[in-house]
């Protein structure tokens, strides 16, 4: 897992720089800067909206006496999506928007759930019962 994270930290910024240079040559540097700011502002708005909606759903679940496990996982995905959207870059923005929209978040959640379960089964994650 550490290897994948290390590669992600090294490769993604290099790709982002390449895309910035390419996009700057294609549409101009000022448009690239505008798009970076626009995606940050739009991402913050969407994260707030989705986060508040998820919080309301979690409160509703708890009022019925049920554990809001699905909403907690949604909240984690929204938080990660918001943080990734605030970092400048088109690849990270794509990942962030995928984590913010419920329709695209659902398949990613199932993938993450399987990954976490596999890590727990292999003993890579310590958890308490």
Describe the protein.
The protein is mostly helical and 129 residues long. The chain has one domain. It has five helices and no strands. Helix 1 (2-27) packs across helix 2 (29-63). It is flat, with a radius of gyration of 18 Å. The mean pLDDT is 88.
Helix and strand topology:
Blueprint: H1 2-27, H2 29-63, H3 69-86, H4 90-100, H5 102-122
Helix pairs in contact: 1-2, 2-3, 2-4, 3-4
Question: Could you give a short description of this structure?
Answer:
This protein has 129 residues and is mainly α.
Q: Tell me about the biggest sheet?
A: none
Strand and helix order: HHHHH
- Mean pLDDT, nearest integer? 88
How many structural domains in the coordinates?
1
Number of strands: 0
Pfam family, one: FxsA
Protein name: UPF0716 protein FxsA
InterPro entries: FxsA
Keywords: Membrane, Transmembrane, Transmembrane helix
For this entry, give a set of tags.
129 residues, mainly alpha
């Amino acid at each position: 897992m550490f290897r994948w994270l290390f590669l992600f930290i090294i490769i993604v910024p290099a790709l982002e720089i390449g895309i910035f240079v390419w996009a700057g040559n294609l549409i101009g540097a000022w448009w690239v800067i505008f798009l970076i700011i626009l995606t940050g502002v739009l991402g913050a708005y969407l994260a707030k909206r989705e986060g508040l909606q998820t919080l309301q759903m979690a409160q509703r679940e708890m009022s019925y006496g049920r554990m809001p496990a699905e909403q907690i996982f949604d909240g984690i995905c929204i938080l990660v999506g918001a943080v990734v959207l605030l970092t400048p870059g088109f690849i990270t923005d794509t990942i962030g928007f995928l984590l913010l929209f419920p329709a695209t978040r659902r398949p990613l959640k199932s993938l993450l759930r399987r990954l976490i379960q596999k890590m727990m089964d292999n003993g890579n994650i310590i958890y308490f019962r």
